[in-house]
TrEMBL record:
This is Mannosyl-glycoprotein endo-beta-N-acetylglucosaminidase. Pfam families: Glucosaminidase. GO terms for molecular function: amidase activity. Residues 98-177 form the Mannosyl-glycoprotein endo-beta-N-acetylglucosamidase-like domain.
Amino acid sequence: MKFIKESIVICILVVSFIIFISSSNEKVNENIKIKSYVLSSTKENLNKENVRLIEKNRASNITYKREDITVESGVKKEELENVFENYKGASTMIHLSEAFVDAEELYGVNAFTMAAIVALESGFATSRRAVEDNNLTGFEVYTDESKGKLFSTQYESVLYTAKHLANNYLTKGAIYYEGVSVDDVQIHYCPDEGKNKEWEVKVDKLASGFLDVYKKLYANE
């Protein structure tokens, strides 16, 4: 009888010990899970903060320079769409955002500059030539009576003009090369001819305006 009682006591102690160990392991595992979650959340927050800082730094370097339109802006298609949405009168050019970015990447002509030329030459892509001929940049238009060049798409018009500028205006030794500024391009692209058109001033104002909107939207300036 005594042996049976001792056996029962031992069994109870063993079971209690097992329960204790099991409970301790569960607590340890739970603590490990909590620590892992905290570390994971911290790492995720740090990554988000790093991405935010990188993007903020990139946004602060987005640029347009009147004195050198071969300096690329670095703007993204989605950002340019937002710029046009928030610039008075420019929402009619949202669909051209990809064309301006591609023109910059392919031919090295600043995207804000190309957008400004289009805005000036086509009334923000709403002129008759822009709508009927897809001619956004006044290409081969020398007078109001000029036929001008017909393009299959407005995208083609932007890319064709950017290539023309890169090859014939912005390359040393090229036929129309005078330098790489907006003012240099104006000399042959849109001569004043005594009419005081101030083409270069208007292009600069538009390009600078687009950049200003970008800075307000993305660089908190």
